Fold each of these.
Amino acid sequence: KQEVTQIPAALSVPEGENLVLNCSFTDSAIYNLQWFRQDPGKGLTSLLLIQSSQREQTSGRLNASLDKSSGRSTLYIAASQPGDSATYLCAVQNSGAGSYQLTFGKGTKLSVIP
Amino acid sequence: GAVVSQHPSRVICKSGTSVKIECRSLDFQATTMFWYRQFPKKSLMLMATSNEGSKATYEQGVEKDKFLINHASLTLSTLTVTSAHPEDSSFYICSARDRRGYSTDTQYFGPGTRLTVL
C-alpha cells in the first residue's frame, strides 16, 4: 500500500527566504506526482505535476523535483511571499491500468512572515 | 481552465438526517469523479471512485449504504450522507477527471463542502 510522508509538518519563514518542502513515498511504481496548495477551508489548487519519466517541473517561483527510484520529491519555493502561506500537499498517482487514484500526504503548513 | 464546483459549500444538519452534496464539472465532461474526506490536520482520504453510468467503487472501510454515490451524467456526481451522525462531520472534496484525453493525468478538485452534524 502506497504511503506518502511530508516533512516538515509545519514551517515558518521570513518573507524573501527560499525554502524546500519534502515528500517521500514508499512505492516507486508511480505514474506521476503532483503538488497542491490548499488554503484554509478551501479546496485544492494544482501547482505542478511531474510525470514518472520527468525529473522536474517549474512554474514561476516554484520548482518541483522527482527522484522516483529513491521515492522522493521536493518543492522549492524561491523568494517566498506572505501570499504563499498555505498548506502544501503532495500526492502520487500509482501505476496500473485504469488506476487514477491519488494518495496524499498530510501536508506541510507554510507560514511566510512579512 | 477546468472548473469543478461543489454545492453546498457548507451545511449544518441534525443527527439522523440525510445530506446531499453535488459535484459538477462546469466546462468539461468527467467520466470519473472521486470523493475524498479530510479530517483536521489529516491528509485527504479517498472514499470512492464514481464512474458515469455504473456503480461507484468504495474504498475499504467506507460504508456504501451510508455514503450513497450517484454519477448519473458526465457532469454531475452526488454524495448523500444518510442518517448523518456527529462523527460524519468533516470536509468532503470531490475531483473530476477530464475525459478528453489530453489531460488524462489531471484531476480537477472542487472547493469542498464542510459538513457539521449536530
Amino acid sequence: DTAVSQTPKYLVTQMGNDKSIKCEQNLGHDTMYWYKQDSKKFLKIMFSYNNKELIINETVPNRFSPKSPDKAHLNLHINSLELGDSAVYFCASSPPRTGGLDEQFFGPGTRLTVL
Amino acid sequence: KQEVTQIPAALSVPEGENLVLNCSFTDSAIYNLQWFRQDPGKGLTSLLLIQSSQREQTSGRLNASLDKSSGRSTLYIAASQPGDSATYLCAVRPGDSSYKLIFGSGTRLLVRP
C-alpha cells in the first residue's frame, strides 16, 4: 500500500524516559512533517523537512529532535519526556510545491501517554 | 499571524440532509486550503485541496468553495449519510512559502440514521 506509516501506534512511558517515533512514506514525496494534536484535538505543526533538510522548527523544545536519514523517513526522538508531551503525533508528507498542489497526506498517528 | 476558525464546533443532522461546514481565515495570502476528515482515534484523510487560484473543488458528494478575499471556505456535503459522521478539519498553507498547514479546531459532525 502506498501511504504514510508510523510506528508505534501507541506508546506509554514514564516521565523522564527517552523515546522515538518512526515515520516512513512510500509516496516519493520530498517534504515531511511532524504535527502534534493535543488533548483538545488541536493540530499544530512541529517540524518540516524538505529533502532531508530542516525547514521549520515551530518553537518546539530542544528535547524534541527530528532526524531524516533519507527523503522517505522522518523520525522523532524525544528526550526527558514530560507529562505535557502526552498527545497524538502525526507524520505527514507532501509532493514538491508546484502550483499549490502540495497536498499533505497524513499517517495514522502515534498516541503518546506519559505517566 | 494566520488564524483559522471553524464554525460550528459541532453539528447533528438527520440522514439525507444537505449541510455546510464553514472555515474562515484571517490572512487572505494563502497558497492553498485543504479539507480533511478525522474519524475517532484515526489519522486524517484528505478530502479536497483548493489552490489559491481556484474557486471550488468537487469530489463525489463533497464540494468545497474558496473565497480568498473574504477569508472563507465552505464544505458542502450533499445527502448526508451516517458514515459521514466524523470531525472535519480545515487547514490553510500560508502564502509566505511556509512548509506547513495551519489548522482550524474542526467541526464534529453527527449524521443520525
